[in-house]
Amino acid sequence: MSQREKNPIWQYFDKSITETSKAVCKICSKSYSLGSHEPKKQTLHGLKLHLSKFNYKEYRQVLKRLSELNDFKNEAKLKRTDLTYHCNKRAQFSRLLFRQSFQI
Ligand SMILES: [Zn+2]
């Protein structure tokens, strides 16, 4: 997954073309530091801080989207556990059938 997809904050920022360590706010066109040129070491903290101070409406949208993504993740986790449960049940059932057919 790319960083752009990972965080909804990228809806409101563009990576700076001239400086790889910076991002530009799409709303007020100000550039903010990501802390590093290396994508792995970059932080979105400055961008979040900027939105929360200057573009609060957008910041709320980001928070909302983030919590939706979390809900989605939790739901996916629940579904997975559910599936494991059913698989286990099915395994038990087929063991039972196996035993019955051989009358063990
Ligand atoms: Zn801004």
Automatic annotation (TrEMBL):
Residues 4-62 form the BED-type domain. SUPFAM superfamilies: beta-beta-alpha zinc fingers. InterPro entries: Znf_BED, Znf_C2H2_sf. One of its GO terms (molecular function) is zinc ion binding. Keywords: Metal-binding, Zinc, Zinc-finger. The keyword Zinc applies. It comes from the Eukaryota. It holds the Pfam family zf-BED. This is BED-type domain-containing protein. The lineage of its organism: Eukaryota, Metazoa, Ecdysozoa, Arthropoda, Hexapoda.
